Structures are given as structure tokens and as C-alpha cells.
Amino acid sequence: MDHPNVRFARSRRVLSRTVGAGVLVTTPDDPNVHELSGGAAAVWGDLEVPRTLPELVDRLAGAHAVGEDQIAGQIRACLDDLVALGVVEEVQGSDG
Fold first, then answer.
1. What pLDDT shows up at residue 5?
2. Angle at 67 between CA 41 and CA 1, to 5 degrees
3. What region, left, alpha or beta, does residue 52 occupy, with left being phi > 0 and alpha being psi -120 to 50 degrees?
4. Tell me, what DSSP letter sits at residue 13?
5. 3-state secondary structure of 45
6. What is the CA radius of gyration of the chain?
7. Can you give the pLDDT at residue 96?
8. What pairs with residue 19 in β-bridges?
9. Are 52 and 6 in contact (CB under 8 A)?
10. pLDDT (tens digit, 0 to 9) for every residue of the chain, 96 residues total?
11. What is residue 73's three-state secondary structure?
């Protein structure tokens, strides 16, 4: 996940529904529905287009007026969880 050209994108297989301030996500082969709230919902929302970890950190830190160093680890952990659930995938960037 540390490679700068790796972008994260919502999986093409994901099923999602916004409910209030949260998001419900699952995949066709997952019997469970997972609720994303707070920071996880913010990461999900920002993944409307594929982004790298540094792009996500920069955008979310600016949007929430916090230092990048304060949230970088949380965003990395959130991405790890979303990838493990199969609702987000790593895709190679096209910028070299």
C-alpha cells in the first residue's frame, strides 16, 4: 500500500446505500452488511474517484481542518479494513 502509484477505488462488485450520515456496504458473496460511519464514511465518500493514500490524507485533512500527520494512520487503517472487506480495491495509477 505504500507504493505512490497505487490508487484505491470502490470495488466494481460493491453494493452500497447511503443511510443518513452513514453508508451500508457489502459484496454479493458477503452475507453481512457493513455500516461505515464517521471517518470511514468520509474515506468512502472521497473514493468516488480512485485516489492514492497521500491524496486522501491531503483532501480529508483539509476538509476537516486537521493536520495530515494526525489522520494519516487512521486513513491507512481504514483503507486496510475496506480492502479486507472487499469493498475497496487497489488499482495501479496511470501516471507512471
1. 72
2. 60
3. beta
4. T
5. helix
6. 13
7. 41
8. 22
9. yes
10. 455 679 999 999 999 999 999 999 999 999 999 999 999 999 999 999 999 999 999 999 998 889 999 999 999 999 999 999 999 999 976 554
11. helix
DSSP H or E stretch at residue 38: helix 38-46
What does the block give as the cell for 70?
Answer: 494526525
Identify the DSSP state of 88: E
Contact by Cβ (8 Å): 74, 39: yes
Check residue 64 and give left, alpha or beta (phi > 0: left; psi -120 to 50: alpha): alpha
To the question of pTM greater than 0.85 for the whole model, the response is: yes
**Partners of 60 in the beta sheet?**
none
Predicted local distance difference test score (pLDDT) of residue 4: 63
| Domains of the chain listed by start with CATH number | 6-92 (3.90.930.60)
If you search the block for the grid coordinates 470511514, which residue do you land on?
40
**DSSP β-bridge partners for residue 10:** 88
Amino acid at 29: D
Backbone angles phi and psi of 65, in degrees to 5: 50, 50
